[in-house]
Design a protein that fits this description.
Layout lengths: L2 H18 L23 E5 L2 E5 L6 E4 L1 H9 L6 E5 L13 H6 L2 E3 L5 H6 L4 E6 L2 E2 L7 H6 L3 E4 L17 H15 L3 H19 L10 E5 L7 E3 L4 H8 L3 E2 L8 E3 L2 H7 L3 E6 L5 H10 L7 H4 L3 E5 H4 L5 H16 L1
Parallel strand pairs: 3-4, 3-6, 4-5, 6-7, 6-8, 9-11, 9-13, 13-14
Antiparallel strand pairs: 1-2, 10-12
Helix pairs in contact: 1-7, 1-13, 6-7, 7-13, 8-13
């Protein structure tokens, strides 16, 4: 099956999980809240990036930053609680996704950086973003800054700082996704809906893992985001780590206790990946990235380059998002094709 057909099938499955929770019937009130959660009591408290955050009521005007974060809200059916989203227009086709109606109905506030002014103009009561996913101390846009303005924050768990020189990540990537779904389910009184999503995603990942290789048969895999002098890649706390390992691959940068970070080309060469996954986004196309990798002399002896074994995934597949489980299934199929 061609790759784009595989992507369509994966997204169709994701849509089914989002809409039905693996076949469970969803009983909802007219405003979209789950009947089972209608008796939820406030205030509620969740732990987010090591801090306890208390909500006196469900936020009503949320601004999200970036595509994965926005789609977490959409997967939970919370577009009616959103004032809008901020996202560049280099994050792929939004017309063929399970949440296309939510994208159509939710204001696209900006294709540039999120800012205090934008948040205040939107009359936001909560910003859902993350460190390097919108929050940036250098830009003066932080949860502390927003708090002074009377605006709450929720941090993407993939972006949590872990205390090592600005490194990010405090738990396995899929657990970060499940944690955010459960926390947001509690904050917005849709815990049953969040639980069905998590259960459905766990089942989807388990199905994808069935029959994947183990031990020495696992292909060594490197994630290439971008970068010429030094490659930007994924450590053990960014989405690609779980995508690669649960799809049957051996993530060659699994010892990096960080999420998204830079390494040296000499490290890539020494670990000799057999497959390279390319992150497709930004001004540099996936094909341009592949051409660079195949023409860069220091990589000439790397197995993935010699055997032309490249896989292209979209940005939203690789950052924390509800598309992660479908991406695992796709990677598992691609790894199996290479093994034949």
């Amino acid at each position: 099956m061609p790759r784009r057909q595989l992507r369509s099938a994966a997204l169709a499955l994701a849509a089914a999980l989002v809409l039905t929770g693996c076949g469970a019937e969803v009983s909802e009130e007219p405003d979209g809240r789950d009947t089972a959660g209608a008796g939820g009591r406030y205030p509620v408290t969740v732990e987010n990036c090591g801090e306890r955050r208390t909500f006196a009521k469900a936020p009503e005007r949320v601004v999200t930053n970036d595509i994965g974060i926005t789609e977490i809200m959409f997967a939970l059916g919370l577009e009616d609680r959103m004032a809008g989203y901020v996202m560049p227009d280099d994050k792929g086709d939004l017309d063929d996704v399970p949440w296309r109606d939510a994208y159509r109905d939710t204001p696209w506030l900006s294709k540039k950086r999120i800012s205090k002014e934008l948040v205040l103009d939107a009359r936001a009561d909560l910003v859902f973003a993350g460190w390097n996913y919108g929050f940036d101390e250098g830009e003066g846009f932080t949860p502390a800054t927003l708090e002074k303005l009377g605006v709450g924050s929720y941090l993407l768990t993939e972006s949590c700082r872990n205390g090592r020189d600005g490194a990010r990540g405090v738990m396995p990537p899929l657990e970060a996704l499940y944690t955010d779904l459960r926390n947001l389910g509690k904050i917005f009184d849709v815990e049953d809906r969040a639980g069905r999503l998590v259960a459905g995603f766990r089942e989807q990942v388990a199905d994808a893992r069935a029959g994947t290789p183990e031990g020495a048969d696992r292909p060594r895999v490197f994630l290439y985001d971008d970068g010429r002098d030094k490659p930007f890649t994924s450590g053990r706390y960014a989405g690609p780590h779980d995508l690669i390992t649960k799809a049957g691959g051996d993530h060659v940068m699994k010892d990096l206790e960080d999420s998204w970070t830079t390494v040296g080309w000499e490290t890539v060469v020494a670990r000799d990946p057999e497959v390279i996954v390319i992150n497709d986004y930004g001004a540099t196309t996936a094909e341009q990235k592949r051409k660079f990798l195949t023409s860069y002399a220091p990589l000439a002896g790397v197995s993935a380059v010699k055997n032309d074994r490249f896989i292209v995934l979209d940005y939203v597949d690789l950052v924390e998002s509800p598309r992660n489980p479908a991406a695992i299934a796709e990677l598992a199929r691609e790894f199996a094709d290479f093994a034949r």
